[in-house]
Write a structure and sequence with these properties.
Structural class: alpha+beta
Strand order of the largest sheet: 4-5-7-6
Distance between the termini: 67 Å
Largest sheet: 4 strands, mixed
Number of domains: 2
Helix content: 25-40%
Order of helices and strands: HEHHEEHEHEEEEEHHHH
Oligomer: single chain
Length: 212
Amino acid sequence: MKYLEFKKKIDRFPLFSSSLLVHFVENLQNLRNQLTRWEEQGLILKLKKGVYILNEDNRKITPSRVFVANQLCSPSYVSTDYALAFYDLIPERVVDITSVTPKKTYKVQNAFGTFVYQHIRQEGFSGFTILEDELKLPFFIALPEKAVVDFIYLNLSNMRKNDADVFEDSFRFQNVEKLNQKKIRKYAGLFNNKKLMIVVKNFLEFIERKND
């Protein structure tokens, strides 16, 4: 298949994978060989093994990084640092897209940036919603309360059991008054972790102080 023919078939997709390509060709191995050549020529970009996007000049759609994050690892949803910044719960601008997944922890780096996936227990893989980016492309992201719980759970080793000040002094949480405390307790309970429940109690005390 010539590149121009391939581009016409694929340019309406935000990105494409090997599993999608089986619908367009008879000999998938030949096309994979062509993909390698087109990548070397800069006509396509590899986002990870088996996942590609047309280069900036040839694609019609440039998806958001949060959409790409979901596509690079399934199942996953954006959470922890990036989600906290997204909801203005921390003041820092977070560059890396951070997500959680019941799969193993790993990192992907490509032309769109760095994507970090941290493992959580399957029981804790909930509390997320679906939003749309500027192009109306859907992506999964933690609810604000679940982003907090995921962050605490994945940073338990850096937290003491009776230290509510750490949330303001070290992690710089802000705007916590809008969080639903009942939801925080519910999501924390999914992990069945005693230390997590103690630290979450400290976080709820921190919220109460902010509400006074």
